[in-house]
Amino acid sequence: MIPRGVELPEVETVVLANGLPVHLIRTAGQEVARVSLVWAAGSAVQTAAGLKPFTASATLNLLAEGSTSGLSSHEIAERLDFVGSYFDVSIDRDYAVATFCSLEKFFAPTLEMIGEIVLRPAFPDDEVALYARKRMERLAMERAKPATRAREMFSAALFGDGHPYGISSPESDYMSLGRADVARFYERYYGAAGCFAVCSLGDDSAQREALLALLAEMPCGGTAAGSGGFPEPKSAARRVEQVEGAVQSAIRVGRLLFPREHPDFVGMQVVATILGGYFGSRLTQNLREQRGYTYGVMAAMVNLREAGYLAIASEVAAEATGDAIEQIFVEMERLRVEPMPEDELENVRRSMVGEVMRILDGPFGIVDVVIENIQISGGRGGSREGEGSARDYINRFIAEVESISPERVMELARRYLGCEGFTTVVVGRE
């Protein structure tokens, strides 16, 4: 039976004197703590501001890998390892995220390291130079893979080569980065004005107050998240990069649609799941089970701050490239003209709601959901965007997935899955 809704812990929002919103989730009895800091400092921000390529990712990764004014990177790693704590960073087109996890009994020494890493980075010249050289070499190796090339080409074809969501820079641009570039980016985008925090903690009031006191030290500056003022996307219908002797071709098919606040977004998530969002999907059955063209295929709705799109991706046998692309459009057309069987749609509903339940099985998944909802709200959650919004959105999501009908699926497919507006990218052999 599909659940009718979920009960999530309450989220308390505290706005500090420096303007930083901190969203606190009480997780009594879990014995673990997590602190996630989210800045509006993704790669698209750097591009829109006309800054050097790779500055955004270098700044975040050097927070994770570099020295501070008081400790070397080796000393930081040793101290975190000694208490079994860890941290991780991630960056996308819109946001940069640093996440710290520890046992509650070791929260104090972990908090001390958060202060060192986030508030007192040094960005020494030698560490910046070493980072740039290693990342240049790593990116060159990654771009030798058809899947990486196809992903970059698809973004460029979907948005335009110079668009902040579409641009890809040559790996040699890493070598133009210097300490001054990274330090300026940190000062401009890593202040409280462009940040929010989401934390899961137990009932220890001393830990809570220590966390808030530390985060209150973040400088008031920074650039707040807002409309990027991006140019209009300019999609190309088709791009192909021939790879002589390729055994497989990486293919991407998709189109620009809308971000998650659009009333049809959840319905199109269902449509994407039907196409390629779970193991029993239609594209999996067609391309893998019936034809043996691929090991796997995926379809998803992708949400960005300024845009949203449908993406279908696979790597197929090179000799089957043309037919694989044709079959993708065949399956989309089937959804436009044939009502899907109720039992198949019920499997999709169960798969989608089951995945939500899996994500929410624990405090860390709840933190991720709260972060995503604040990002989607277009702000930092300074009032009620964190408090209650995650629970409300998830319950609306479950209700819409549970109630979607074959007729609604067909309506959405007819509206958005026509051949017009689609972009196709191939890296390999046609």
Chart the SSEs and their pairings.
Elements: E1 11-15, E2 21-26, E3 32-39, H1 43-48, H2 55-65, H3 73-82, E4 86-91, E5 96-103, H4 107-119, H5 125-142, H6 146-159, H7 179-189, E6 195-201, H8 205-215, E7 238-242, E8 248-256, H9 265-276, H10 282-290, E9 294-303, E10 308-317, H11 321-337, H12 342-359, H13 363-376, H14 389-403, H15 406-416, E11 423-428
Parallel strand pairs: 2-6, 7-11
Antiparallel strand pairs: 1-2, 3-5, 3-6, 4-5, 8-10, 8-11, 9-10
Overall description:
The protein is α+β, with helices and mostly antiparallel strands and 430 residues long. The chain folds into two domains: 11-215, Metalloenzyme, LuxS/M16 peptidase-like (Cytochrome Bc1 Complex, Chain A, domain 1); 238-428, Metalloenzyme, LuxS/M16 peptidase-like (Cytochrome Bc1 Complex, Chain A, domain 1). It has 15 helices and eleven strands. It has helices at residues 43-48, 55-65, 73-82, 107-119, 125-142, 146-159, 179-189, 205-215, 265-276, 282-290, 321-337, 342-359, 363-376, 389-403, 406-416, and strands at residues 11-15, 21-26, 32-39, 86-91, 96-103, 195-201, 238-242, 248-256, 294-303, 308-317, 423-428. The strands form two sheets. Strands 1-2-6-3-5-4 form a six-stranded mixed beta sheet, sandwiched between helices. The protein has a five-stranded mixed beta sheet with strand order 7-11-8-10-9, sandwiched between helices. Strand 9 (294-303) and strand 10 form a beta hairpin. The longest helix is centred in the first third of the chain and has 18 residues, at 125-142. The chain is globular, with a radius of gyration of 23 Å. Mean pLDDT is 92; it is low at 383-388.
